[in-house]
Amino acid sequence: MELKSRESLRIQRAAAGLLVVDIQERLLRAIFENERVGENSHRLIQAAVILNLPVLATEQYRKGLGPTLPALANAIPNFKPLEKVAFSACGAAGCLAQLNGAGISDVILCGIETHVCICQTCLDLLEQGFRVFVAADAVSSRTQENHFLGLERMRDAGAIIGSTEMFIFELLERAATDEFKRILPLVK
């Protein structure tokens, strides 16, 4: 049997980056399972920092929705959120340029809302040729139904839906490393 050459199905660490979408104080309060979203997004940020992956963040209409959750903003090195009024993070000035400039082709998404900003960001990234990995336990919407519908729409469009732990371990690839020891407390 002849093996066909194909793109890796796993996240490629050398080409990966994390995009944190609109996890802002006022909006987060209204989100279904908001504590889960905040905690898992924080884990993803911490893991990305340990693994030296680029981390970008957006804020939707900061004047009305407030700033990014302080614990998350403080965990992102040199935190400078991209402000936007478009629902897609790709509509934020400089977002695509920063992703491309950092050599990112595999984008891990976390944030809110699944069926609006996350979904539209995902669709735009896929159209631009990025591979998109959505951490289903680090995204949500105001309603459970919209959260699940957003995940289905993104999967149907070609995004890879997984969990925070799945993506962290996929990026790590192996145990018995210094990075593994530093990340282990995040997944216990």
Task: Please describe the topology of this protein.
Elements: E1 16-21, H1 25-28, H2 34-50, E2 55-60, H3 62-65, H4 70-75, E3 82-84, H5 95-101, E4 106-112, H6 114-127, E5 131-140, H7 144-157, E6 160-162, H8 164-172, H9 178-187
Parallel strand pairs: 1-2, 1-4, 2-3, 4-5, 5-6
Helix pairs in contact: 2-9, 6-7
Q: Please give the alpha-carbon distance between the first and last residues.
A: 42 Å
Number of strands: 6
The Rg value, from CA coordinates, equals 16 Å
What is the strand content? 15-25%
The CATH superfamily is known as Isochorismatase-like
Query: Main sheet?
Result: 6 strands, parallel
- Looking at the overall shape, the CATH architecture is 3-Layer(aba) Sandwich
Polypeptide structure, described:
The chain has nine helices and six strands. By secondary structure, the protein is of the alpha/beta class. It has a single domain, classed as Rossmann fold (3-Layer(aba) Sandwich). Strands 3-2-1-4-5-6 form a six-stranded parallel beta sheet, sandwiched between helices. The longest helix has 17 residues, at 34-50. The protein is globular.
Keywords:
6 strands; Rossmann fold; globular; six-stranded parallel β-sheet; alpha/beta; 188 residues
What's this model, at a glance?
With 188 residues, the protein is α/β, with parallel strands linked by helices. It contains nine helices and six strands. It has one domain (20-187): 3-Layer(aba) Sandwich (Rossmann fold), CATH 3.40.50.
